[in-house]
Every structure is written in structure tokens, then in C-alpha cells.
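Reading a protein record of the kind used here takes little practice once its layout is understood. The reader may check this reading against the record printed directly beneath this paragraph.
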Amino acid sequence: MREFFVARTHERKEFAVEEELASSGLETYCPAEYFITYPRHRKSDAHVEVKMTLFPGYLFIRFPTMIDWNLLRGTFGFVGLLSCGGRPIPVPQSSVAMIQIETGFPDMPEYKNTKYKYPDILVIGDNAKMKGGMFKGQKTVIKQLSEDQATVQLMLFGKEFETTVPVSLLKKIKTNKT
């Protein structure tokens, strides 16, 4: 499985590094937002749309474990991968998906020309249903959330109580907003 990693770049070179790595066949993602600015030196009401990165000096790269490291090292503006003890640290897909949802899914190859349904990402305050364990079928509310554990609020015997369960046992309940 291919995972995302965080690449460090020279500041303001994120988009150039992203473009060069993407042209080399790697999947890249640089979270960005567009801002409209009105330059002071223009006398008209003309505006300029500016693309700004959310994380200056960083972007996400997805690649398999076997990669030609010279491809990365030879990219102008590329500094290195975030690592611990010399080993690159993978970023959870759920974290990248949350950023993609918030920024409106930039041009990622798997999303081009497709109607992508948002993944069922759990967030604090969501209603969920237990998929297994001794509380199977019980409806819950998520109070705290980490990568693999969730603190949920359950109603049993007419009383509310909180317990910690694996996230894998929770399924988000879709609510109709009217």
C-alpha cells in the first residue's frame, strides 16, 4: 500500500517541487487555498487570485516503499522527508483526507474526472453505531478521538456513561440535514 509522507521544501518552492515530482510520476498534494487580493499599485478594481499553501515549506508525497531516492534528492527545492531516527514517518490517510475535504480536493489523480464520495471520517460530536464488541448495535456519540481509539458516550440502563473503544468498531451514522 502506498502511504503519504511529509516532504520539506524550501519556502515558496512547494508548488515547483510538487509539479516536478508529479511530472516524475509521484503522487503529490500541497494543501492550498486561493485568496483574492487587490493590488495597491493598480488604480482599477482589478483583483488577482493568489494560491497560498496552508503549510509553508511542506507538501505530501505518496509513493511505494521501493523508490529511487535520487529522484527526490535531485529535485530542486526538495530538502528532505520528515523522519524520526532516519526513517520517514507515514501520515495517516485519514489525516490527509480531512485536509483534502477542508480544502475542496485539489487536483489529485484519483479524484480527477470522478464523482468522489466523501469518506466516512469520524469527528468529535458525530453519531456512530458500534459494529462489534459487547456494545454491538448501540448508538453512541463521539466525545474524544485519537488515531485508533475513541471515547464515546453510551446510554445504558437509562444512564449515560463514557468508554473508550477502537475506532475500527465504529460506523458513522449519516444524518439527514433538513
Summary: Residues 127-172 form a domain with the SH3 type barrels. fold (CATH 2.30.30.30). The radius of gyration is 21 Å.
